[in-house]
């Protein structure tokens, strides 16, 4: 070492090349590697990029596996807590992981922070952030809606702000933008492993990270420095060839994949895009594709690191991260013979623009066949509202491509025939499109620029143009279109597509217009055909950051006071759930037998209910109010099996709880798909539920149920769903011997006194069984902390 110091001293006047050679000889570390180790994960963090550590872990795992690896495996397994001993078997083993960071949106952060407060820990163990984006209702326009939201939600915002300051969590104020865009612009990087309390967290896969949606209890684990558990996912490869062109956009890739895999085809798997076609997609376009991967049930989605990602990193002020990623490209790309469990191939050159819906995001309609399908199925052909933006499609490129369509239309003297709403994804995007004239162009088209927030995409829309129950059509560039999601009207037919097609369809005002082939009529009466949309991928003048909306936590937040008023109807401190009493669950009453699709929206509605996300008892009044009761085909009307009276689901559950009657729910396929909201698990637990028995679960919801001490069970024989009647009593037997992989005996007692037995499956491992016995994962955490 002394020799190295002398040499370095003596070479002071020589060139950088000489210094590089000296460093290589003396330290056996390349200068690029050394430089990468000093690069922070973000401008807000002190923690360095973890590439060196990840590479060392990957070496251990790769030696054990002895084969080529997918990108998903490289990133995931390099974050293993114990790479030398961790069992690794796709679809079977449970991985114990160490994520790099946690992100929470304001609707789910309330419950996550309330749970973290309950843990008694002084500060979070990993970089974490809160993003205020869900509580802003679209009414008039951006500024006025934001001001109104700040006033209405001041109690919640103050709680989140002070909780963040006290426990070391960064706070993005209302108006900052949508969580996923803020993450992409500031925190995502190739090779990142992040969990976020929102189902569209996979948006970060557009920058080569594994970003996974979870419930708040999972976030608490990671913030508490507990290894995060995930069932080892399978890997679905999507090989892209050709190039995007014309009206086909990145959104059409995921709309096509959704049509192939359906809403449950990605469950338990990571979707990994690769192939030569990847390079024809912008970084933000890749994010769009990964974002909507949530709609096929995928654990997450990811793209390999490439020049498009590097360009985006540099454009958002992260040159050092782009350079570091280039140094570790082997970690951030799949091996040549990477093994996929399923392989899909899509030729981008022949891919047609799609419009998916209504009522489900996997009903794929090529634009050339949409009009025909609408007439066949009696979908309203006249469009009432067009909406672009959201976390899925609100990039500078998206807005620019829409503006190119609008400019051409305005040149012919025509504007949107219908109301046209624009949601910028972030303050940075809003400020940049304002500076570059894009926002004004969209206003001249007839557009209303809304606040930088989720807005109508999640039901935060004070819609006035139709009455509830009125059949109508809207087209959006959003990601989800379940019944009643956007406007609480079950008769609204929502179609999801690219922002470019939303803009074109808004010009025509009809579903049967195809901009690829059809003409419009200008103000002068002459026919014209729209040109292919185009725009700069990134702003030539760079991004305008707009207003500073970030609040960094203080170095010491121990003296910060976090108040939750006992009289508040928005916030409520949590009481621990009761422990399992060690006995079988016998004669459970069936609260509701759900028929058909039951998303987390059906279990815990959003929209106006979002304001109660921090108050478990109040929000429980929305439990199952939009789920279809198999007994009568109605919504929010079930029979109280004790009194014989019919009433709302939440009120019936409360009546059971008051009388000490434990209950269960029976459901259909892919139960709990959609949002990551853990309230869909917390509410049944709070109101006395003990088990959820279904044909199959969506991943996040199944985990959320486990975390809250409920038993998530599936029929060993799916047809046994039909054996159960709403008037039956259910007994779950042999629970003292509950073990991983061991079926649960279920006795069905019919109203006539006859009984029959069926088998139920579960995916609980030993740790998750301990959550059930303790009453919840949080209860178990406290037991461990107290030495039990």
Automatic annotation (TrEMBL):
Pfam families: Aconitase (PF00330), Aconitase_C (PF00694). InterPro entries: Acnase/IPM_dHydase_lsu_aba_1/3, Acoase/IPM_deHydtase_lsu_aba, Aconitase/3IPM_dehydase_swvl, Aconitase/IPM_isomerase, Aconitase_4Fe-4S_BS, Aconitase_4Fe-4S_dom, Aconitase_dom2, Aconitase_mito-like. Its cofactor is [4Fe-4S] cluster. It comes from the Eukaryota. PROSITE patterns: ACONITASE_1, ACONITASE_2. Its main location: mitochondrion. The keyword Mitochondrion applies. CDD domains: AcnA_Mitochon_Swivel (cd01578), AcnA_Mitochondrial (cd01584). Binds 1 [4Fe-4S] cluster per subunit. Pathway: Carbohydrate metabolism; tricarboxylic acid cycle; isocitrate from oxaloacetate: step 2/2. Residues 590-717 form the Aconitase A/isopropylmalate dehydratase small subunit swivel domain. The keyword DNA-binding does not apply. Keywords: Iron, Iron-sulfur, Lyase, Metal-binding, Mitochondrion, Transit peptide, Tricarboxylic acid cycle. Its EC number is 4.2.1.3. It catalyses: citrate = D-threo-isocitrate. It is found in: Mitochondrion. Residues 73-509 form the Aconitase/3-isopropylmalate dehydratase large subunit alpha/beta/alpha domain. Belongs to the aconitase/IPM isomerase family. Catalyzes the isomerization of citrate to isocitrate via cis-aconitate. PANTHER family: ACONITATE HYDRATASE B, ACONITATE HYDRATASE, MITOCHONDRIAL. NCBIfam families: aconitase_mito, PRK07229.1. This is Aconitate hydratase, mitochondrial. It comes from Bicyclus anynana (Squinting bush brown butterfly).
């Amino acid at each position: 070492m002394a020799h190295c110091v002398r040499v370095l001293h003596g070479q002071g006047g020589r060139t950088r090349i000489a210094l590089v050679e000296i460093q290589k000889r003396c330290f056996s570390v390349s200068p690029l590697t050394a430089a990468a180790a000093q690069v922070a994960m973000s401008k807000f963090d002190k923690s360095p990029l973890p590439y060196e550590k990840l590479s060392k872990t990957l070496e251990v795992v790769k030696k054990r596996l002895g084969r080529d690896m997918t990108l998903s495996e490289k990133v995931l397994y390099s974050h293993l807590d114990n790479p030398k001993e961790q069992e690794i078997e796709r679809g079977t083993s449970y991985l114990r992981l160490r994520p790099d960071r946690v992100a929470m949106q304001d609707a789910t952060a309330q419950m996550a922070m309330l749970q973290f407060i309950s843990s008694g820990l002084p500060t979070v163990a990993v970089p974490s952030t809160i993003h205020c984006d869900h509580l802003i209702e679209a009414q008039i326009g951006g500024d006025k809606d934001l001001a109104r939201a700040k006033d209405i939600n001041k109690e919640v915002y103050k709680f989140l702000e002070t909780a963040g300051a006290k426990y070391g969590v960064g706070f993005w104020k209302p108006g900052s933008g949508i969580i996923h865009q803020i993450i992409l612009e500031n925190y995502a990087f190739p090779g990142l492993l992040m969990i976020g309390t929102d189902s569209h967290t996979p948006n970060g896969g557009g920058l080569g990270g594994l970003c996974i949606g979870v419930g708040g209890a999972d976030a608490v684990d990671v913030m508490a420095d507990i290894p995060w558990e995930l069932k080892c996912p399978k890997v679905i490869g999507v090989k892209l060839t050709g190039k995007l062109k014309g009206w086909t956009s990145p959104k059409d890739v995921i709309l096509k994949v959704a049509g192939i895999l359906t809403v449950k085809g990605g469950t338990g798997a990571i979707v990994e895009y690769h192939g030569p076609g990847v390079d024809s997609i912008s970084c933000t376009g890749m994010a769009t594709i990964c974002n909507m991967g949530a709609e096929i049930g995928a654990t997450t989605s990811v793209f390999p690191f490439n020049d498009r990602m590097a360009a985006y990193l540099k454009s958002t002020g992260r040159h050092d991260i782009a350079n570091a990623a280039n140094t570790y490209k082997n970690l951030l790309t799949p091996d040549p013979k990477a093994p996929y469990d399923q392989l899909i191939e899509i030729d981008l050159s022949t891919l047609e623009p799609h419009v998916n819906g209504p009522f489900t995001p996997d009903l794929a309609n090529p634009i050339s066949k949409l009009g025909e399908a609408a007439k066949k199925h009696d979908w309203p052909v006249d469009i009432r509202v067009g909406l672009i933006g959201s976390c899925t499609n609100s990039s500078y490129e998206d807005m620019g491509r829409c503006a190119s369509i609008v400019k051409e239309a305005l040149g012919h003297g025509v504007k949107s025939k219908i109301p046209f709403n624009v949601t910028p994804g972030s303050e940075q995007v809003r400020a940049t499109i304002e500076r570059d004239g894009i926002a004004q162009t969209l206003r001249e088209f007839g557009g209303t620029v809304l606040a930088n927030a989720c807005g109508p995409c999640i039901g935060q829309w004070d819609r006035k143009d139709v009455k509830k129950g009125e059949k109508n059509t809207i087209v959006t560039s959003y990601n989800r279109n379940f019944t009643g999601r956007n406007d609480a009207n079950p008769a609204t037919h929502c179609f999801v597509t690219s922002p470019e097609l939303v803009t074109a369809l808004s010009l025509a005002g009809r579903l049967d217009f195809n901009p690829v082939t059809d003409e419009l009529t200008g103000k002068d009466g002459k026919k014209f055909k729209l040109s292919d949309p185009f725009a700069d991928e990134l702003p030539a003048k760079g991004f305008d950051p707009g207003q500073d909306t970030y609040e960094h936590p203080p170095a010491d937040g121990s003296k910060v006071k976090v108040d939750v008023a006992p009289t508040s109807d928005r916030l409520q401190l949590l009481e621990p759930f009761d422990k399992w009493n060690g006995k079988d669950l016998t004669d459970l009453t069936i609260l509701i037998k759900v028929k058909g699709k039951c998303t987390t929206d059906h279990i815990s509605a959003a929209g106006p209910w979002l304001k109660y996300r921090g108050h478990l008892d109040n929000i429980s009044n929305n439990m199952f109010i939009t789920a279809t009761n198999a007994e009568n085909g109605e919504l929010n009307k079930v029979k109280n099996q004790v009194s014989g009276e019919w009433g709302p689901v939440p009120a019936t559950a409360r009546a059971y709880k008051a009388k000490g009657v434990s209950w269960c729910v029976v459901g259909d396929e892919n139960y709990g798909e959609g949002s990551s909201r853990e309230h869909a698990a917390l509410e049944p637990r709070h109101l006395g539920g003990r088990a959820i028995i279904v044909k199959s679960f969506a991943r996040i919801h199944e985990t959320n149920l486990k975390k809250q001490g409920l038993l998530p069970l599936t029929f060993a024989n799916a047809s046994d769903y039909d054996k159960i009647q709403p008037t039956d009593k259910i007994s779950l037997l042999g629970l003292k011997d509950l073990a991983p992989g061991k079926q649960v005996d279920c006795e069905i007692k019919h109203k006539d006194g006859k009984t029959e037995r069926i088998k139920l499956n579960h995916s609980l491992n030993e740790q998750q069984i301990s959550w059930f016995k303790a009453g919840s994962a949080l209860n178990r955490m406290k037991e461990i902390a107290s030495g039990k």
